[in-house]
Design brief:
Chain lengths: 320, 396
């Protein structure tokens, strides 16, 4: 019985954590290039509503429709990120306010809600959904079966993506250049690396991943759309990047950990355990984020492991 | 052809050393106009007639019966949260917790209003204001202290506390038998609501014909003038501006930046908390978690503050603009009027204000061909950190 609770908790944690993995990975890449994008929440919502809209309006085989929906979500996130990239890299405005503007623009009461109304996709049950697959036919193995071999394709995709990102960041020349752009854009520029191009590419890629993270809600977790669906996950993703010291592998761990905290309340209540009010469990992930941030900013972490030194600072040869 | 090239060559973009007064007006106004045009294109592209949509919005916000009064009703909380954003952002302290600070102000003020219902009205109103101030300020001091003494990113902490405050309100009304919850009738036990405040706790209104001005707006305007004076003409405000423009210089000059961060966060939270008190005293007369959360006044305050270019006095005007926008959006809500338009327009306005900021930093000049031209050698010290946050600020 208790083992079942733990397994159910882990399975739900992975489900809750996957959008955080995708969106967090996107933010991580953007921040590695030196661009802080606080618009993750807005980009996720745009991805969620765009992906859902495509999956509802497009006909054809389910697998193709879902793939097109993912592409639509990634494109929507990328376009949102492009606005931020233009303002923060080319116009060199304050990145904090620009990111906030993006979240207000695309967020709960903004463009994502507008799109949802124009295409009338709010409050209806989706036609297509990524369901868990029985990987290698091993889902009935004890313990690891339901956790490792019975997930939906996007979960496996996100894990592979984390591995690819690790390889890219730390084992390739482009990854090295990317990190140098985030550390010291002037030095990178002197080496002949195109700082602007790197920053644009990774900010837009980050937006596409945030869009996919949002689409995980509407295409895998529960196929429906409502305004403000992501409920602050975009912000938690940003916090996770700091928590993970800008490393994809730690990000994956952190995302599942947070997923577990989110899952704790409902999992206990579903089994009739009402030790504490549900609001307590709902608030735990947010309090945990604060605790984690404080922990990450003190003690041995003070050496700023992994923090891109030029994060949030626009680059221009003029030197301003 | 060659003359065109040389004409282009004679155009120079150079750094401004100071911001001319007229630009401080032109940028926000032009941003509003540009935002209307861009949103008009979006409207047209999605099958709405922008001209009739804007006409409807103007009527709903200004000329319709009760329209102007409703605009002030929407503007009042935004005035407070706009001030909260303006005062913190001016010092580059990124308090985006105005939302949660407003909730905590509302919780404290409604608690005071319920507990002290027997007090005479002026004292009761004052007590609610003090409670709102305390609730908002204390909630804002948490990210302030963490920022100042642990170097924890205040953006994320203040934002996370918004959710915590939101769930706290829900707990008080929906999931507990707290002092705030109405348990007097069987139906109230099944459908949870907050206790209604006594009539003596209703804040006064000023009426002129059919126009009704809420007391809270007057309080907010007084606060705006006070904060404007504080920023502009006091040592406190001077130190704030130095920290905001050149953090390192402030440290060298011996300004105690840590204390300042905490106290500015408190002032910022105080404004938002007073907005929460006004929501209870002026309008709601009951703690309504769902209504407060759906309104999202805290987040809108960021738009209001930015549109005012973080000048507290200008927040009065920008809150009226954004309030009119929200009012018309809500009044016209329905199948024919697109939901989300208001937020989209707010976002576009913010983008335009931000983009316009470059005009305040650079200027385009024309030089005669052949004349020696050179860029301003180095920007003044006060300009340098304006462009971004330092890495440590984000990381730690």
């Amino acid at each position: 019985m208790n083992r079942n609770i733990v397994i159910a908790l882990i399975v739900t944690a992975i489900g809750n954590g996957t959008p955080l993995v995708l969106a967090g990975l996107g933010e991580l890449l953007a921040e590695r290039s030196g661009v802080l994008n606080l618009g993750v929440e807005g980009m996720m919502l745009m991805g969620a509503v765009s992906g859902f809209t495509v999956s509802q309006k497009l006909g054809g085989p389910a697998a193709l429709v879902l793939l097109a929906a993912l592409l639509g979500a990634a494109a929507a996130g990328a376009v949102m990120a492009l606005i931020h990239a233009f303002l923060s890299i080319t116009v060199r405005v304050n990145q904090i306010v620009s990111g906030l503007a993006l979240t207000i623009f695309a967020g709960t009461a903004g463009l994502s809600s507008y799109v949802g109304q124009v295409w009338k996709v709010g409050g209806i049950h989706g036609l297509h959904q990524y369901k868990a697959v029985d990987l290698f036919g091993l889902k009935n193995l004890p313990i690891v079966g339901p956790i490792v071999f019975h997930e939906d394709p996007l979960v496996y995709f996100s894990v592979i993506l984390v591995a690819v990102a690790m390889w890219y960041l730390f084992r390739t020349r482009t990854g090295l250049y990317l990190r140098s752009v985030g550390e010291s854009p002037a030095a990178a520029d002197a080496m002949g690396i195109n700082v602007t191009r790197y920053r644009y590419a990774h900010t837009v890629l980050g937006g596409a991943l945030a869009g996919l993270g949002g689409a995980y809600f509407t295409l895998a977790l529960a196929p429906f759309w409502t305004d403000g669906l992501t409920a602050g996950d975009g912000w938690i993703a940003i916090a996770l990047v700091i928590f993970a010291f800008w490393r994809p592998d730690l990000l994956l761990l952190g995302a599942y950990l947070f997923g577990a905290f989110v899952a704790l309340g409902p999992t206990l209540q579903a089994r009739g355990i009402h030790a504490l009010p549900s609001e307590f469990f709902s608030a735990v992930p947010y309090v945990m984020t604060v605790v984690v941030l404080v922990a990450a900013s003190t003690g041995w972490a003070k050496r700023r492991l992994g923090t891109p030194a030029a994060l949030g600072v626009p680059y221009s040869r003029e030197g301003g | 052809m060659s003359s065109r090239v040389s004409a282009l060559r004679s155009v120079r973009i150079e750094r401004r050393l100071d911001i001319p007064r007229w630009l401080a007006w032109v940028v926000p106004v032009a941003s509003l106009v540009l935002a209307l045009i861009i949103a008009g294109v979006v409207l047209a592209a999605t099958g709405h007639n922008p001209v009739s949509a804007y006409r409807q919005m103007f009527q709903a916000a200004v000329t319709a019966k009760g329209g102007l009064t409703a605009t002030f009703v929407y503007s009042t909380p935004m005035l407070f949260t706009g001030l909260a954003a303006a005062i913190a952002f001016r010092m580059r302290t990124w308090n985006i917790g105005g939302e949660g600070q407003l909730y905590m102000g509302a919780v404290a003020a409604s608690g005071a209003g319920l507990a002290l219902a027997s007090w005479p009205r002026p004292l009761l109103v004052l007590a609610m204001m003090v409670a709102g101030v305390a609730g908002g300020a204390l909630w804002a001091v948490i990210p302030g202290i963490l920022r100042a003494y642990f170097r924890t990113n205040e953006i994320l902490v203040s934002l996370m506390l918004n959710y915590v405050a939101g769930y706290f309100m829900y707990y008080l009304i929906y999931d507990s038998t707290s002092y705030w919850r109405d348990l007097s009738t069987p139906s109230a036990r099944v459908f949870p609501t907050g206790k209604n405040l006594a009539a003596a706790a209703n804040w006064p209104v000023f009426t002129a014909g059919s126009f009704v001005l809420p007391f809270g707006f007057v309080v907010g305007a007084v606060l705006a003038i006070g904060l404007w004076f504080l920023v502009r003409s006091t040592r406190y405000g001077f130190e704030m501006r130095v920290i905001g423009d050149a953090r390192a210089a402030a440290e060298y000059a011996g300004i105690r930046t840590k204390r300042k961060i905490v106290s500015v966060m408190a002032v910022s939270g105080l404004a938002a908390g007073l907005g929460g008190a006004s929501q209870i005293g002026d309008f709601g007369h009951v703690l309504d978690p769902r209504g407060l959360q759906q309104a999202g006044y805290g987040y809108t305050g960021i738009v209001v503050g930015a549109l005012a270019l973080y000048n507290p006095l200008a927040v009065i005007i920008s809150s009226l603009f954004i309030g009119a926008l929200s009012n018309s959006g809500n009044a016209l809500q329905g199948p024919s009027f697109p939901a989300g338009l208001v937020g989209t327009m707010q976002g576009i306005i913010l983008f335009c204000v931000l983009g316009g900021e470059i005009l305040t930093r650079y200027r385009v000049t024309r030089r005669l061909p052949g004349a020696t031209t050179h860029l301003a050698a180095r920007p003044p010290a006060s300009e340098v950190p304006r462009d971004g946050v330092s890495a440590t600020e984000v990381a730690r």
